[in-house]
Automatic annotation (TrEMBL):
InterPro entries (alphabetical): FSCA_dom_sf, Mrp-like_CS, Mrp/NBP35_ATP-bd, NUBPL-like, P-loop_NTPase, YlxH/NBP35
Annotated GO biological process: iron-sulfur cluster assembly
Name of the protein described by the UniProt record: Iron-sulfur cluster carrier protein
Coiled coil: none
Residues engaged in binding ATP: 134-141
Family: Belongs to the Mrp/NBP35 ATP-binding proteins family.
General function of this protein: Binds and transfers iron-sulfur (Fe-S) clusters to target apoproteins. Can hydrolyze ATP.
PROSITE patterns per record: MRP
Annotated organism of origin: Komagataeibacter saccharivorans
The keyword ATP-binding belongs to this UniProt entry's keyword annotation: yes
Gene Ontology MF annotations: 4 iron, 4 sulfur cluster binding; ATP binding; ATP hydrolysis activity; ATP-dependent FeS chaperone activity; metal ion binding
Quaternary structure annotation from Swiss-Prot or TrEMBL: Homodimer.
UniProt-listed CDD domains: Mrp_NBP35
Keywords: ATP-binding, Hydrolase, Iron, Iron-sulfur, Metal-binding, Nucleotide-binding
Length: 382
């Protein structure tokens, strides 16, 4: 289906009312963004916190109305994003973002001679995949860094984007301290360990807190995709923030995700969140490349005794239950933590260690899937 025009969607927003018909979706919020992917219409409605409670019950009816109004639309997904109202003229601003945030473009890159790259993929990038988790603390970023560097060792041209705006950890894990160059309004990302990497953590002080609302986060991710000179890449690996929210929707809107890798730990609580992550990507029609069980077991460095601190095999069983591939087990080892703190991924610092081999096996498996995706894409283009 072709993308609907903005007027069509805004008309539907005016037609869906509260139960007492005192307000419509259009009066309680405004159309922030929309995109169509595989017949599914994704819509973001901007509102403030005081009106979100009134809007939330209207979303199921709004989704049905959008499907009925937009030709070729098989399903609709609507989320709410929070915009902060502008302060009165001359009044002191509260919770004010940086001056460069105008238009939700928080990265001050200076004037650009032309428009930012548009389209389903950043210029020169073959495919984009996400590394995600349903919750924090499961080792997702460590997995993303070692997977990206491991894919580079498999012979692919790789970029790594840290989309966790609130908790960027890529600079420390990659050992990158220099700020990227700004050239003609675009960022030139650093190259290290065989891959190109970019994070908002390279633009701010390590101790600064990114106190940004949803639209600011979405704008930053859009800039990190479109305003970075990624160059010719086979794959761009995106380290997602934990959970399901604005960042995930923004990626679905800004680029065509070819697949997602879900990271979980073995215990039941983590697997519940991993299940939600799989469901989120399925709703966005993004293929799940597989599930990784991190912290799968602990090996004592003195006696080599294996202990399953968080249980074992839960992610494999969950993958089988959900009908998605199981990509492997990563042990819980002090060397993984130490290598991340030192800025050298363990696939570089200790490639023959148990953890290094586990990550390299993961990279080899994912590389095979990516080559099939790239071959399919190249055949479709010829």
């Amino acid at each position: 289906m072709t993308s609907p025009d903005r007027n069509t969607i805004e008309t539907v927003l005016q037609q869906v009312h509260t139960a007492d018909r005192s307000a419509s979706v259009a009066t309680l919020g405004s159309l922030d963004a929309f995109m169509v992917r595989d017949g599914v219409l994704h819509v973001a409605i901007a509102t403030d916190r005081s009106r979100a409670a009134a809007l939330q019950p209207l979303l199921p009816e709004l989704e049905r109305a959008l499907v009925a109004a937009v030709p070729g639309c098989t399903a609709a997904s609507v989320i709410l994003t929070a915009h902060r109202a502008a302060p009165p003229q001359g009044a002191p601003a509260q919770d004010t973002p940086p001056p460069a945030a105008s238009g939700h473009r928080p990265l001050n890159l200076g004037a650009r001679p032309g428009k930012a790259a548009t389209g389903p993929l950043p210029a020169g990038v073959g495919v984009v995949i996400a590394v995600a988790s349903g919750k924090g603390g499961v080792g997702k970023s460590t997995t993303a860094v070692n997977l990206a560097v491991g894919l580079g060792q498999e012979g692919l041209k790789v970029g790594l984007l840290d989309a966790d705006v609130h908790g960027p950890s890529l600079p420390r894990m990659m050992g990158v301290s220099d700020r990227p160059e700004v050239r003609d309004g675009h960022l030139v990302p650093p190259h290290k360990w065989g891959i190109t990497a970019m994070s908002i953590g390279m633009l701010v002080n390590e101790n600064d807190a990114m106190i940004w609302r949803g639209p600011m986060v979405m704008g930053a991710i859009g800039q990190l995709l479109g305003d970075v000179e990624w160059g010719a890449l086979d794959v761009l690996v995106v380290d997602m923030p934990p959970g399901t929210g604005d960042a995930q929707l923004t990626l679905a809107q800004k680029t065509a995700l070819a697949g997602a890798v879900i990271v979980s730990t073995p215990q039941d609580i983590a697997l519940l969140d991993a299940r939600r992550g799989v469901a989120m990507f399925e709703k966005m029609n993004v293929p799940v490349l597989g599930v990784v069980e991190n912290m799968s077991y602990f090996c004592c460095p003195n006696c080599n005794h294996r202990t399953e601190l968080f249980g074992h095999g839960g992610a494999r069983a969950e993958a089988e239950k959900l009908g998605v591939p199981f990509l492997g087990e990563i042990p819980l080892l002090a060397d993984i933590r130490a290598s991340a703190d030192e800025g050298a991924p363990i696939v570089i610092s200790a490639p023959e260690s148990a953890a290094g081999q586990a990550y390299r096996t993961l990279a080899h498996t994912v590389a095979g899937a990516l080559r099939r995706l790239l071959d399919k894409k190249n055949k479709a283009a010829t």
